[in-house]
Amino acid sequence: MPTETFEFQVEARQLLQLMIHSVYSNKDVFLRELVSNASDALDKLRLAALRDDSLDVDTTDLHIEIELDPDARTLTVRDNGIGMSYDEVGNLIGTIANSGTAAFLEELKEAQDAAGAEGLIGQFGIGFYSGFMAADEMTLVTRRAGEARGTRWSSRGEGTYTLESVDEAPQGTAVTLHLKPADSEDQLHDYTSTWTVKEIVKRYSDFITWPIRLVPQPGGDGADMPEPETLNSMKALWARSRDEVSDDEYHELYKHVSHDWREPLETIRLQAEGTFEYQALLFLPAHAPHDLFTRDARRGLQLYVKRVLIMDDCEALLPPYLRFVKGVVDAQDLSLNVSREILQQDRHIRMIQRRLTKKVLSSVKEMKANESDKYAAFWREFGAVLKEGLFGDPDNRDALLAVASFASTHAEDGATTLQQYVERMKDGQDDIYYMTGESRQSIENSPHMEAFRARGVEVLLLTDPVDEVWVDAVGEFEGKPLRSVAKGEIDLDVQGDEQADAEREKQGEVYAGLLGWLKEQLAEEVKDVRLSTRLTVSPACVVSDAHDLTPALENMYRAMGQEVPATKRILELNPSRPLVQGLNQAFQEEREDRTELVETAELLHGLAVLAEGGQPKEPARFVKLVAERLERGLR
Ligand code: ADP
User: Which residues does the annotated region (A) include (predicted)?
Assistant: First the structure.
């Protein structure tokens, strides 16, 4: 097969341009990335050999080699891991297809300046391509375990790369960087210096469980080094005692397992001793991944059995609502070749899951107790996911409710726990009031809030889609029911206020006719029309019946493909408004031609729907009616 030349996708080219012009100030990390990839490839080979007896590979000396050639100015990172087939090289290295990168490039287009771009690289990382920060040409030679032929990939990082099938290649992958000149202006270290490379490996890759060897170069400054030297301690961080490991080291492990370039928010260690022994090292990321709510996204912890990685993305170790947690679990007594299905059922795995869940939740509780910015950042990023646990994991509901915080009309620093809400409740208030909606602003402006605002009653402002679900599942907190301000009848008046009761009764009589007539007129839209106790300035609003689905929930079920009948709502009128009073008067005049009255009823309902962010059933007709009324007003 001849050498074929391919063009990078437009996006890939942009990314490479960035690398070449190296806006990212910490260029040393390219070595961490290449070593990380090599380490993954060794893990994969060992796993493949474990699962497939027919795979004829030698796994006795799996390792990573770094070879420096100061004369040719090259640095090579070589592994005898799984390798890649011709197609895989094209797919994995040739294109930048993974979704993280796609999101990265989206934002990159918006970030025009170098500082913005640097921030983005720090956020997303760019793996293999980071080599172009230090090199103006990269070559990769690889042979997939079990295959006869190898593949050579090469690129100057400009518009194109070449692919070529080669007869001879050692199994595994060798990546060679043709280094740019070491240059103080570009702040490039001399990556052909053994000292520099040793420092970088020690700093970023010490914990890698495979040996990273520096191959002596005759003629180079490694000439006095007869044997390859192993640069890393290979000690699994989770197996070392806490005071032996620095935060930086933990952070590098986090970056290796998560492919995130940023520091984690929190590191959580756990050592379980006794009959079933295991260690866990977990990380709470500082930022939610873009695919947090994508159904098929890859998640899970790395599962080791006695230092041997047996699964890269073991989901069974944590409940779905902790899917963002990264890290490693190393168990002593699991079988090396357990399958995913068996793991899901395994008693020990379930035990670990329970324990890890409690540990993560207690760490969050601690962050919260310290009133740190950490907790605020954590909840901002992951609160919406944790709330899934409120209905998904009843066993930990109380622990979750203790750390959950919500925006509220009364919270001083913007958020409150349910506990704090209860402590602030007014005398005679029995319920915890909340309102759901798309944004804080839309909720605060909604007519349903009027009476609560007028009486200074606190309302939780819930804006995550999941809020609709958990409030129903949880139902109450410390015996106080959770109640939507937009559902059912609301009675905020002090009990036994006789004057208010009498007033209401009188109005009930005055409006009885109108309410009955409206109910008939709007029968297709609403199931009842009544006078409101929740409005002060708005003429009308629509509310849901106490146990009915809200429009948001209905939409959610429909989006999930479930059929739900449309639920009719209730129209509430505010008898203190001239519009409502006038309507009643017009109704009582019993004119022949009721067209105008009918239209007014329709408009009133439309306004109520609009006020809560909904849409009148026939927007065009609604607009036409409004325009006619406006015109008439101008005459
Ligand atoms: P990431 O490592 O974040 O997935 P990279 O761009 O670094 O992104 O690598 C893309 C893919 O190329 C890897 O996921 C892996 O499948 C493959 N790859 C990279 N380096 C190696 C290697 N040394 N051996 C085998 N496969 C590799």
Answer: 1-340
